Amino acid sequence: MLINEITESKSLLQLLDLIREFCRETTLGDNAEKCIRLKESVENAEENDYLTLLSSYLSICETGDEVIEALEEFVDNCKDFAEANADMTEQITKAEFEMVLCECEENAD
What we know:
By secondary structure, the chain is mainly α. It has helices at residues 2-8, 12-26, 32-44, 49-58, 64-84, 94-108.
């Protein structure tokens, strides 16, 4: 199940791929319940800094559509960083990742 795979992902690149797959699958039907289940699973995940950051994107979401939009925003903000640094993705610190994420968000505005 994709929700479990997302919450168990170890690298940013893997997480982004799984999120893209989740979004593709959920946009084909009415999957609001599945989206809320993903949000709750991400919020309850422990010891994964990427999921902690993703949780901050999902925290204000109340509907399945809002979850999908937040997931897509997270992927958009992180994709260039993850793909350009695929070899280093698992080795950076949380502080370094947060700094780059903030820069991506500022550039998107």
